[in-house]
Specification:
Elements (H helix, E strand, L loop, with lengths): L1 H5 L1 H8 L3 H5 L9 H13 L7 H13 L3 H13 L6 H10 L4 H12 L1
Length: 114
């Protein structure tokens, strides 16, 4: 199953004695349907279509929750490409709250110093 291969969190759900393992159902209430669809698409294709800044922020939260670091870092990379003086604070907060890579943090610091 693709979910097990792409996420340690899903792997733990399905390979342990958790309810999801016996029911094959995962109830997700805290992620928007559109965000979950994008996350699932990434699991199967290893890419996502161009996204809005809002979609990327939601996707970072979901990717962090399900330990999908490649997706999370891809979103941060795209966010830094769209970073400006109006959204830098929000991106910085997102980066610190969701364990972004040191490369992204360095890029944000350099942006602030220019």
């Amino acid at each position: 199953m693709c979910f097990i291969a792409r996420s340690d969190v899903f792997r733990a759900m399905f390979e342990s004695g958790m309810t999801e393992a016996s029911s094959n159902i995962v109830k997700i209430d805290d992620i928007k349907c559109q965000t979950m669809n994008i996350l699932i698409e990434f699991m199967y294709t290893d890419r996502v279509e161009p996204l809005t800044v809002g979609n990327m922020k939601d996707l970072v939260v979901a990717a962090d929750k399900y330990q999908m670091n490649k997706l999370k870092e891809s979103c941060f990379f795209e966010l830094t490409r769209k970073m400006n003086s109006r959204n830098i604070g929000e991106i910085m907060l997102l980066a610190s709250s969701h364990n972004c890579s040191s490369d992204i943090k360095l890029f944000i610091q350099k942006f602030l110093l220019r």
